[in-house]
Structures are given as structure tokens and as C-alpha cells.
Amino acid sequence: MLALLIAAALTTGPARLTPDALRARYSGIRSLSADVVQVKEGRFWVRPLESRIRLRYTPQRIVWETVSPVRSTVTIEGDRLVVSDAAGKTRELGALAGDPRVVALLRFIRSLIAVDLDALERDFTIRYGEGELVATPRDGSPLRLFESIRLRFDASDDLTGMELVTATERTRLSFQKIERVPPPPSGGPR
Fold first, then answer.
1. Amino acid 162: pLDDT
2. CATH tag for 15-181 (out of 2.50.20.10, 3.90.79.10, 3.30.530.20, 3.20.20.140)
3. Which of 36, 73, 94, 96 could form a cystine bridge with 84, CB 3.0-4.6 A?
């Protein structure tokens, strides 16, 4: 009997990700920081472009600091987006801030980083699988520029990667050294 239980445990795959487990894991985040490796590839890229990024998130503000290959910082506060280059010169989103597509895109960025399922479900249909969530845009969504979004999680439901796919480009993000306040609840079975 013991041999059968061990055999069954060894042959089962990873547990299926659930919305309840993710909501429990990501509710109440006051801040999050991470090192991110971003790889972009697509029709207009000669070869994949790899960037190193430092992410800092609070519900009010997101700072996406590209450390290499070219330093820049993107800051999102409310509906305001500011880009600073390596020399410190800044550009603000300005007139585009009122465009509903831009507002939807900024809301989308916040919801991805916070793994806010309720916000994501406004514009996407979500399918849960083995350690991943796949989101496809709903008809009429202002975020139809994406063909699919894939979020990957480890066995503790910690976000480890994202893949964003458009008609011409694929962007993969790998998250490392994630620090959260408050710390995530201890991982339990899904």
C-alpha cells in the first residue's frame, strides 16, 4: 500500500494553479521590488535584446529602472507616465494621458505587477494551468494589441516569469530577488 501511495505521488504533475490561491498570495501588497531580466525578440529585432531592470512597485507608483544595456527610468503615478534617459532628461506622456487606450495600458501594467486578477479579468479571459496563468484579450478590450499574456509561478505561487506576445514581438520577463511588504503568506498546497 505504501508503495502505491509513493508511486502515485511521484507520477502526479505539479498542482494546478487556482485563482483563490493567487488572490490569497497577492492580496494586500504594499510594496514589491525585484530584479528583472527582460528579453525582447520579434520581427523588427535583428537579434534578441536583453535588458536588466530594477522594479519597484507600490499601489501608487511603479518605477521600472533599466540598468543595462541603456540606462533609463519609467515612472508611472496615477495616469502619469514619465520617462528619464541616462542623462536625466525627462519626457512626460502629456496629451496621451487622456487616451482611454493609454489609461487601460497603465491599469494593465499595475494589474500585472500586483497579480490583480479582478483587474486583469476586466480586459482578459484567464485560463489556469500547471503553474501558469494564460490571459487572452476579450473582444472589445482596449488591450487587443496583445495576443496573449502568460504568467508563470513556482510551487509556492510566487511569480517567476511573464511572457507578453503581440503580432510582431515577444517579451519574456524573469523575476529574481523579489521582496514584498508584507511578505507573502507561507505557501500551502494549491
1. 95
2. 2.50.20.10
3. 73
